[in-house]
Amino acid sequence: MRSGPHLMWRRSDGVCYVACMKSWSPFLIVGAGGFIGTGMRYALSLTAQRFSITFPHGTLWANLLGCLLLGVIMALAEDLQMLSPPVRLLLATGVCGGFTTMSTFTYETMRMLQDGQWYYAALYYLVTLLGCALMLLAGMLLVKGAARLF
Fold first, then answer.
1. Residue ranges per structural domain of the chain
2. At how many degrees (to 10) do helices 118-149 and 102-114 cross?
3. Mind listing the pLDDT tens digit for each residue in 31-62?
4. What is the distance between the alpha carbons of residues 34 and 102, in angstroms, rounded to a whole number?
5. CA 16 to CA 3: how far, in whole Å?
6. Is 51 exposed, middle or buried (0-12, 13-18, 19+ CB in 10 A)?
C-alpha cells in the first residue's frame, strides 16, 4: 500500500498499520544508512581511481549502481510490499542517499564545461542521466522477474 513518505505498510497477512515516525528513530535510521552508503561510495571511488584519475568513473558508477539499488528497493517495497517503513528508510533514503552523488555529478560536469571539455561534459551528463534511468528500471524489472520465479 502506498501512502505518504514511508508511513504505511501492509504486512504479508494483509494487516495495515501506520508506522510511528514522531521520534528520533527515523533520523538515526537514515543516518546509519547514510554512514553505510557513504562508506560504499568512498570504497567505490578508491577502486575507480585505479582505472582513471581524469574521468570521474567513481561518481558515474555510484550513480548508476545507486539507481539500480534504488530500483530494487522500491520494487521490493511498493510492488511486493516486502520492506517495512523503517527498512525502506534505511535502504532508500539512507544507503542510496549516501551512496549516490548528484551534487558531485553536477560539480564535475560544470568543471568539465569550465575547462572547455564540452564533449566529455556532454557524454558524462547523458550517460549518467540515461544510464541511471535505465538502471532504475532494470532494478525494478529484476525484482519483478525474480518474484515470478518464487
1. 23-149
2. 160
3. 999 999 999 999 999 999 998 888 899 999 99
4. 15
5. 11
6. exposed
